[in-house]
Design a protein that fits this description.
Layout: H1 2-16, H2 21-40, H3 46-54, E1 66-67, E2 70-71, H4 79-102, H5 108-152, E3 168-169, E4 194-195, H6 201-213, H7 216-225, H8 227-234, H9 236-248
Antiparallel strand pairs: 1-2, 3-4
Helix pairs in contact: 1-2, 4-5, 4-6, 4-9, 7-8, 8-9
């Protein structure tokens, strides 16, 4: 147990620093103990519980700093985990809207059951996509660390960084079934194209909410700027959901994300 505690403490030093790492580990153990007593009851095997559940980092997303949806180096909420929660809400809204449109006149219980089935299939497919994305993130982080170590071992040279072309996206248009004009949003000019890097988080979330209500916004964006740009604005998982629902033409409750596999 002592070896496991020292090993985890050494890992935390790399994130939080030598001075703060012991407190970060103590807070983690206290948080896990509170959860255990609230949800699981008394601990039968304290040593096994400490090694298996209290000490290890619980990484909830692809960010190596994430522990229980909090960043180890700053103590702030993990933005990747916040994006995942927003993705789940957008996915549920999109699936529920598709079910309502395809099952007019049916009871609420029937629509809810159909939504749950379709949502389960969608979430399962997205889980595989998310795991692939996390693997890419981990590879990128390892490559960045290797480049940083290689650069530190070389003499300093004034090499200008290659310019990065901004991703330009169109302003979201109002949904077709909205009778009243959409109020003007602060910082958004509907007559001009926008640069994705200039958008605030609130503007991005607003576009995602509008796209959940009107999937044509996603299709228009892909037609003009490409699928990669749409994935950056609306998230890769939501674009995949919209494309899948569009390919079905109507809700097929027998559809599974594995196709003919």
């Amino acid at each position: 147990m002592e070896a496991a505690a020292r090993s985890e403490l050494a890992r935390l030093v790399g994130f939080a620093g030598r001075a703060d790492a012991p407190q970060v580990l103590a807070d983690r153990i206290g948080r896990r103990l509170e959860d255990q007593m609230r949800l699981g009851g008394p601990i039968a095997d304290p040593v096994g519980w400490l090694i298996g559940r209290a000490l290890p980092q619980r990484q909830q997303c692809g960010d190596a700093r994430c522990d229980d949806r909090v960043l180890l180096d700053s103590g702030q909420d993990c933005p990747w985990c916040e994006d995942r929660q927003a993705d789940r809400r957008a996915t549920r809204h999109a699936v529920a809207a598709a079910v309502d449109a395809s099952m007019p006149g049916t009871s609420e219980a029937a629509r809810r059951a159909a939504t749950d089935r379709q949502l389960h299939e969608t979430v399962t497919a997205e889980a595989w996509m998310r795991e692939h994305r996390w693997a890419q993130v981990r590879e990128q982080q390892a490559a960045a660390q290797a480049r940083a170590e290689a650069a530190a071992a070389q003499p300093d040279f004034d090499v200008p960084a290659a310019p990065v072309a901004p991703v330009v996206v169109p302003a979201p248009r109002p949904a077709a079934d909205t009778p009243a004009p959409v109020p003007e949003r602060a910082g958004v000019d509907e007559d001009h194209e926008l640069v994705l890097e200039d958008l605030t988080r609130e503007q991005v979330l607003d576009w995602r909410a509008r796209a959940a209500a009107d999937h044509q916004i996603v299709h228009d964006h892909i037609a003009r700027y490409g699928e990669h740009s749409a994935q950056r604005l609306f998230t890769r998982a939501f674009v995949a959901t919209v494309q899948r629902l569009s390919g079905l033409g109507h809700l097929d409750l027998g559809y599974t994300p594995w196709g003919q596999a």
